[in-house]
Amino acid sequence: MIPLIFNGGVYEHQEFENLVYDLGGFVIMKNYAQTEVTIFFLVPEEDLERVKEKALELKAELKNAPLAGSEIAVVVPTISIYHLPHHSCDVAEYLRRKGAKTNMVGLSRGVGKRLAMLTAFERELINEHDVAVFLFGNFRECVSEKIKKMLRGVTIPAVATGFPKIEAPEGVEYVPNLGRIVGKFSRESDIELLEKVAKAVEKQVEKKRKIFERFDVPPYYIKSEIENQIPEIEESPSPAPITVKLDGVRVKLPYEKFGERIKDVRILDFRLGDICNVLPSVIEGQTLVRVAGVW
């Protein structure tokens, strides 16, 4: 399967979706913006030319989406205007353009090298994602101490950024020359830094993807079956009521009300609850579905 992004007009975009499904592909996520629509999808590699021809016919743009099907936490020390790194939104948006579903996590006690820490809730929230990207500042001593404290207890792959060049903990991808700045990223050199962050995230995503690609039922198939068997998901106000992850899906329905129904979803000859772990998210009103036997 090849992950791609379709950017085009709303008019007749349903024809493109129908083609994706007819070819045995899957739509991961779809976003509307006035008269434009963005579709994140997967299609068999051998049918790539047919998809390109249809996009050309609809005067739409196709782009590669190496991060499609992943959920990334972009972690900033605080949402205070005095400490929030100004490039945080640039990083999150750049990863979205690569296909990722990104969530910004602002810490309650992320300021100060001696006091910086994650709360239990923040740690659990970050660990629900596929990869975490920690954005630090400009001072070497501060970044060196914080990176050790912040990643304590984080069990998912991590990428960190900061201005100084430092020795990052083992297993952490560190991108230097990217500290707190004033203004938005617009120069060519800025885009190159964002691309380095994206490449570091892609590396971590690929490592994790190889662990779960042996699973017989891929997450995007689980998404499709939940949509077909639980029609209430269409009532969710979220633009992505089911978020595809590398290790399963996030369903934006409360576990207390829909947990048993999600477990009863039929996947081939099995119940979803027999082949996956279905559990409440730390985010109120959401349910996690994870590959069984891994967590």
Write a brief structural summary.
With 295 residues, this protein is α/β, with parallel strands linked by helices. It has helices at residues 13-22, 48-57, 88-97, 120-127, 140-150, 188-212, 219-229, 255-263, 272-275, and strands at residues 2-9, 26-33, 36-43, 61-64, 71-76, 101-106, 131-135, 158-161, 172-175, 242-245, 248-251, 266-267, 270-271, 276-280, 287-291. The protein has 3 domains: 2-64, Ribosomal protein S10 (Alpha-Beta Plaits, 2-Layer Sandwich); 71-211, Response regulator (Rossmann fold); 219-291.
Descriptive account of the structure:
This protein is an alpha/beta fold and 295 residues long. The chain has 3 domains: 2-64, 2-Layer Sandwich (Alpha-Beta Plaits); 71-211, Response regulator (Rossmann fold, 3-Layer(aba) Sandwich); 219-291. It is built from 9 helices and 15 strands. The chain has helices at residues 13-22, 48-57, 88-97, 120-127, 140-150, 188-212, 219-229, 255-263, 272-275, and strands at residues 2-9, 26-33, 36-43, 61-64, 71-76, 101-106, 131-135, 158-161, 172-175, 242-245, 248-251, 266-267, 270-271, 276-280, 287-291. Helix 3 (88-97) packs across helix 6 (188-212).
List keywords for this structure.
295 residues; alpha/beta; Alpha-Beta Plaits; Rossmann fold; 3 domains; 5-stranded parallel beta sheet; globular
